[in-house]
Specification:
Elements: H1 6-22, H2 27-44, H3 64-76, E1 83-84, E2 88-89, H4 91-121, H5 127-152, H6 156-182, H7 189-217, E3 226-227, E4 230-231
Antiparallel strand pairs: 1-2, 3-4
């Protein structure tokens, strides 16, 4: 068996996280499991027992990220009640939660779709070009949804708290994307873009978790604030 490279292990851990969370495991616990596995690989040489698997190279334009983000918008977000104070349903917080995520995921899907189309339509396969385009993509997504939230009337305290709690997850996963882009482990453009989209899919799940955390843990700061036709408790 060939020793697995650092880049392949990163890809493997991303797949493990996605599988665990898809099976219903909470994101925090899945991240701990993946973290322990990564620690063991680095310190106990688990890598000697893992062979590099063949990567299924499919068209990135048909990647599961797109179906997952659409499912999240149509099903997950619309059927997820937000609980607050003794696990009671809170209409106002649930409305903000759904509006925030509807806006963000719509922008996210649109921008990533264009990013993938632009990359796939080019004949060249340049890592620096992909890295630059991806950095610009993230900047546009964040800037656009923050402006859209303010237009929508999302309370400023909610936007600030969400960005604060979400930032560390974004930074961690974007560093994985940077490693993926700069890695020599992927022999084709399809492999590289598919791996980038794997990380974006994880980040969608973290976005939902962080939005739920933001609105569930903000207490007195939101009490009495009016949002659309509701007054938050």
């Amino acid at each position: 068996m060939k020793n697995i490279t650092g880049e392949i292990m990163t890809d493997f851990l991303i797949k493990v996280f996605t599988t665990l969370t898809d099976q219903g495991l909470r994101g925090e616990l899945a991240l701990i499991i993946v973290g322990v596995f990564g620690f063991l690989w680095k310190n106990v040489s688990v890598k000697r027992f893992i062979a590099r698997k063949e990567t299924l190279v499919s068209d990135p334009r048909k990647h599961g990220f797109f179906s997952f983000i659409r499912y999240s918008k149509k099903i997950t977000i619309k059927t997820m009640p937000l609980l607050h104070k003794n696990q009671r349903y809170c209409k106002g917080r649930t409305l903000i939660f759904k509006d925030m995520l509807d806006v963000k995921l719509e922008i996210w899907e649109k921008f990533v779709e264009k990013f993938v189309e632009d990359i796939m339509s080019e004949n060249k396969f340049d890592k620096d070009d992909i890295c630059l385009k991806h950095c610009e993509l993230v900047e546009r997504i964040v800037s656009t949804y923050n402006k859209a939230w303010k237009r929508e009337g999302i309370p400023e305290i909610v936007i600030e708290k969400f960005n604060l709690w979400h930032f560390s997850h974004v930074e961690s996963l974007l560093s994985l994307i940077k490693d993926t882009i700069n890695s020599n482990a992927y022999s084709s453009k399809n492999e590289k873009i598919n791996s980038i989209l794997d990380v974006h899919r994880i980040l969608v799940r973290w976005t939902i978790i962080d939005a739920e955390k933001t609105l569930g843990q903000l207490n007195g700061e939101l009490s009495g604030i009016k949002y659309k036709d509701t007054t938050l408790v």
